[in-house]
């Protein structure tokens, strides 16, 4: 449907697996507890309740440990062993006895789940998936979603704003020369990426809300978009079915 060849998709997947193989944090704008707890509170507001939660691409568990007190049972999934190692340290430190961690990717995760969820979420992950992979993810997630549940995709890179942010247009000290320098730098990065057949951007792909909506429509979901509170170039997609009674 989305025209990406299987070989290219698998090459990209290998790139991201390697990229995250030794990472130990989710690359939040600030890493202090105060900032992460504010981010988590914003996300909890959009998750809007539920008793069970799947956090796909949970990384080092930075948000997951803040979700834990609000849910009965949580499952964190990531393909990176180093990220999961950090996540288990955090879970132990914060004494969250209700979190299970699973090492898996967007294809293998589904067979490893033992129950379905009220909320399936992913924060800062969709950018590492192609549109076809997002389509598969939403289809599979819909089979593991309880009645009245929601799929909440946080912090999707917005192609309408991200390029402007990258060249520093939102920066307080932006000036003509600094913007010109950033444009030249981006041009060099893009050139080197295509010569080395790497993704153009280590932050992954930006996806237009209309493309995400098309996927949601295909599986008879409603979708609401919300601007990300702490990242001006990102947005959240809240995916749900109005036909189902809201049970939570
Ligand atoms: C930017 S980090 C965000 C981590 C976490 N959600 C947070 O907000 O702190 C992205 C995470 O997604 C994971 N990831 C990316 N693509 C994945 C995939 N296809 N399957 C499983 N995990 C994936 C990476 O290993 C990484 O831990």
TrEMBL record:
GO terms for molecular function: methyltransferase activity. Gene3D superfamilies: Vaccinia Virus protein VP39. The keyword Disulfide bond does not apply. GO terms for biological process: methylation. InterPro entries: Methyltransf_25, SAM-dependent_MTases_sf. Residues 54-149 form the Methyltransferase domain. Keywords: Methyltransferase, Transferase. SUPFAM superfamilies: S-adenosyl-L-methionine-dependent methyltransferases. This is Methyltransferase domain-containing protein. It comes from Methanosarcina vacuolata Z-761.
